Amino acid sequence: MQKSIDFVKDLDKIIILAQGPSWYQCPDLVPGREGTEIWGSNVIYREHAVDRLFFGHALKGHFFNDDMNFFENLNKIGMPIYTNGIYKVLNNCARIPVLEILEEFKVGFFLNVIAYMIATAILQRPKTIDMYGVDMRPDANYEYLINEKGTVEFWCGVAMGRGIKIANTKESYVMKIKQEGNFPGFKPKVPQNGLFTLIPKEERNVEAMKNYVLLPIGEEI
Amino acid sequence: MNKVKEAEGAKKVEPIKEVKKEPKRVYNMNMVKGLDSIFILGRGQSLGYCPTKKPDKSEFWGCNNIYKAREVDRLFIMHDIYITQFNRKAEIIKEANEKGFPVYTLGKYEELKNNIQYPMPEVIKEFGIAYFLTNISYMLALAIMQKPKKIFLLGVDMDFGTSNEYMQNEKSNIEYWLGQAVGRGIEFSIAKGSTLLKRKGRNNYYGMKVTTEKDTNVIHLEPEYSYGKPKSALKYKIVKVRHNL
Fold first, then answer.
1. Chain A residue closest to B129 (CA)?
2. Which fold has domain B37-190?
């Protein structure tokens, strides 16, 4: 069932589903299980159904990289989408409640979309926050690990300080310094299907790409 | 004649000057709940911001040999003390005993006069997690349990220039415990210059543009849009063009 754009307080569980390699361990959405919601980040809707979707950064890049029918697909699925900007082309879109978070916690430390998601989840006072694909692996890029692991762990700390249980996959490095699991039953992601796939392979390099421009079809609103 | 004078002079006894002794400081061996503030002192440069005179209803908690820079109420040495002594601070046991403050360690050391074993089982039970990668994380966890109104971190700088391991895991470990403090309603203050809760070269609001008002220093948050354009179309196409960029 499609969720309303308003958040639901006091759920049993909010699952935060991100794009790290342990994403596939996330359980499926079960209709009628009202006490649990799955909140996805970025283009994870391509691999797994979610109740709500969050984007921290500007959106147009996803047309190029991930999904050439990006906005159309989001509107077709119809789930509530939370962003920092305002996108009139999206039918069911609202702003991430950054101001409400700042009001509540008096701390501004959001270095990635997961930080916004955990903070927003804490405001809804669930009993548990489970995380899948929030792996913060050292083999991801250096900047990512140095700073973003900290922002995720900070908000996990806030949640735990408020009595919310946090669970994560064995493979995740969050609140750990080594991987404990070994990705049993690993599932790869669906291939990217952005506009760049229309560019001949031999031209997919920094110089040749300068010859391509992204143009709107129809009016920009 | 001279000899007589010398002899008379020798008889004069100088009055003994009374040497004023500093009263021996008495340390509280028990933890104190509900303080106004606990100052956690590390060895980074921003330790210089720490006041020399301790505010009322406050305690200074230091790690390793920080007592050389500030009078501390409690000292934390979470590495093996013999290794610390051998490698870096030969006098640490002697000096800690002379000072007389409580010294928290993971093990128990007969050589330390006021040695208190870090209450690990209680801390793990309280927080439901054992996640301690630095001295500071142990100190923060124990400080949070004392429910002070505010925790100050001074000299806890986690410089961007220090080693990878330090930055990758230890910084985030301390940030985790700061989150615990926030979750439990404890305020904290980080010294200017510390990299905690900061990202190098970028702002703290992912996907947002942060501008600071000149006169008031108040910040404004605006969404960042692709190519600076807030408007979007429902669909885009990619077109090859000829230009000389």
1. A175
2. sialyltransferase cstii, chain A (3.90.1480)
Residue type at B152 in one-letter notation: F
CB A174 within 8 A of CB A137: no
Chain A hits for B179, CB-CB cut-off 8 Å, are 153-161
Contacts by B122-131, CB closer than 8 A, 24 or more apart: B127/A160, B127/B180, B128/A160, B129/A160, B129/A175, B131/A175, B131/A176, B131/B173, B131/B176
Chain A: closest CA distance from residue B58 (Å)? 23
Per-residue pLDDT of chain B (245 residues; tens, 9 = 90+): 444 444 454 556 666 666 666 677 889 999 999 999 999 999 899 999 999 999 999 999 999 999 999 999 999 999 999 998 888 788 999 999 999 999 999 999 999 999 999 999 999 999 999 999 999 999 999 999 999 999 999 999 987 666 666 667 899 999 999 999 999 999 999 999 899 999 878 899 999 999 999 899 899 999 999 888 899 999 999 999 988 76
Nearest to B238 among A84, A176, A195 (CB): A195
Say how far residue A60 (Cα) sits from the centre of its chain: 16
List of residues 6+ apart from B54 with CB closer than 8 A: B39, B60, B71, B73
Fill in the amino acid letter for A206: V
Q: How far apart are CA A94 and CA A71, in angstroms?
A: 14
Q: What gap in Å lies between CA B86 and CA A112, rounded to an integer? A: 43
Q: Are B241 and A212 in contact (CB under 8 A)?
A: yes
> Which of A98, A153, A162 to mutate to probe the B interface, most B CBs <10 Å?
A153
CA-derived radius of gyration, chain A: 18
Q: Cα B49 to chain center, whole Å?
A: 11
Distance CA B80, CA A24 (A): 42
Q: What is the DSSP string of B57-79?
A: TEEEEEETTGGGTS--SEEEE-S
ipTM of the complex as predicted: 0.94
The matching CATH number, chosen from 3.90.25, 3.40.1350, 3.30.1050, 3.90.1480, for A13-211 is: 3.90.1480
Residues of A in contact with B223 (CB under 8 A): 58, 83-86
Give the span between the Cα atoms of A136 and B205, in whole angstroms.
19
Residues sharing a CB contact under 8 Å with residue B35, sequence separation 6 or more, in sequence order: B57, B58, B59, B146, B148, B149
Low-confidence residues of chain A: pLDDT under 50: none
Neighbours of A43 (CB within 10 A): 22
